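4.2 Preliminary Data

To establish feasibility before requesting continued support, the project team ran the inverse folding procedure on a target of 77 residues. The structure was first converted into the token representation described in Section 3, and no sequence information of any kind was made available to the design step. The complete token record follows.
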């Protein structure tokens, strides 16, 4: 598994978020890219300890095109 950490911007709120993305293969599932967004907002952290607000492709990977679209949508630098 590869994992890259960067900052991005929530397209709905304009708030800074933490983003993790990369490539993964889970045995028995479709390999591919994953994209995860973590909020820094207290209300989101209270919902779950990690504050995760988007989790695409974690088990069944997403395509490179979908990953690029999400990187652009969330303004990942």
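Position-by-position output of the design step:
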């Amino acid at each position: 598994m590869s994992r890259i950490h960067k900052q991005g911007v929530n397209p709905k709120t304009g708030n800074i978020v933490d983003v993790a993305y990369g490539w993964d293969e889970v045995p028995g599932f479709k390999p591919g890219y994953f994209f995860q967004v973590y909020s820094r907002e207290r209300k989101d952290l209270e919902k779950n300890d990690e504050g995760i607000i988007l989790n695409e492709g974690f088990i069944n990977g997403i395509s490179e095109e979908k990953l690029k679209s999400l990187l652009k949508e969330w303004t990942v630098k």
